[in-house]
TrEMBL record:
Residues 156-184 are annotated as: Disordered. InterPro entries: CAP-Gly_dom_sf, CAP-Gly_domain, Ubiquitin-like_dom, Ubiquitin-like_domsf. It comes from the Eukaryota. GO terms for molecular function: microtubule plus-end binding. It is found in: Cytoplasm. Belongs to the TBCB family. Keywords: Chaperone, Cytoplasm. Its main location: cytoplasm. The keyword DNA repair does not apply. Residues 171-182 have a biased composition (Low complexity). This is CAP-Gly domain-containing protein. Residues 216-259 form the CAP-Gly domain.
């Protein structure tokens, strides 16, 4: 049998999660049935039910599964073909009275008008997402883009600082700001001390990954860079720069270019992790 964890909702601010066991195909209780449960647009895992279970007892059991309160619950029995078989109106009668069969469906309906299942918006299509063109966004005042342009214009050294901290390939304007202060051989010795394919940790944030590239990345700026394939999606690329030039392969969001001095090679047990 397979164990399912179902999130029902919240009660008094406490989240309710229950465990439901779905029986394997062909595993029917000796004195009962295996039925499917539908509530609104949700199909729950099939559950084994005793044929001696009364409708009232059944409602309380389905309450924990669907979140529908028994006083507001209306049950209908449907065949495997979806056709209506019976309404389980008499709470004192046992389940066997309605002659269900394995694979039948218990349709749970909630008469509470405030219940989400009864909201009309569930039947409607989601509203289209508003998207603004890049040209229109550029014409707006007091945006983050305008703020960033103003700050970089007032303090161009920030672009160079970002470059040294090993962020992903910056824009061409940022590269030009830092080109005058960084030589083409910047951190060549640090890059020569690293080994391709070695597990590493980045400083100062501690991200883990594998050294996938060593060399120049003109778009990122002068000097030498280390391309790292990160274990977690905490990077900004997939091994390529913004212009589309690829230096190594990794999953999207797992790649980053950093200065070699920020890379610490791992050995022993640390290198075997991940």
């Amino acid at each position: 049998a397979q164990l399912f964890y179902l999130y029902i909702g919240t009660y008094a601010g406490i989240g309710i999660v229950i465990q439901v066991m779905e029986p394997k195909k062909g595993s029917t209780p000796e004195d009962g049935y295996v039925l499917h449960v539908d509530c609104g647009k949700i199909r729950y895992p099939s559950i084994p039910l005793s044929k001696h279970l009364t409708v009232k007892q059944l409602k309380y059991r389905l309450w924990y599964l669907t979140g529908v309160c028994p006083p507001n619950m209306v049950l209908q029995l449907k065949g495997t073909d979806g056709k209506h078989l019976a309404g389980l109106a008499d709470e004192d009668k046992p389940l066997v009275h309605y002659s269900p069969a394995d694979g039948c469906v218990l349709q749970v309906m909630d008469t509470n008008p405030k219940q989400l299942f009864n909201k009309a918006w569930l039947e409607s299509k989601p509203a289209p997402k508003y998207e603004m063109s890049d040209e229109k966004y550029s014409q707006r005042e007091n945006t983050f883009r305008r703020f960033k342009e103003r700050i970089l214009k007032e303090r161009p050294e920030l672009a160079a600082r970002t470059n040294h901290q090993g962020e992903d390939a910056p824009s061409s304007s940022q590269s030009s700001c830092s080109a005058s202060s960084v030589s083409e051989d910047h951190q060549e010795e640090e890059a020569a001390a690293l080994i391709l394919g070695t597990r590493c940790r980045l400083q100062p944030d501690g991200r883990l990954g594998r050294i996938a590239y060593l060399g120049r990345v003109p778009e990122a700026g002068p000097g030498y860079w280390a391309g790292v394939a990160l274990d977690d999606p905490r990077g900004r690329n997939d091994g390529s720069t913004r212009s589309g030039l690829r230096y190594f392969d990794c999953a999207p969001g797992h790649g980053t270019f950093v200065r070699p001095a920020k890379v610490v090679m791992l050995s022993g047990a640390e290198a075997s992790e991940g």
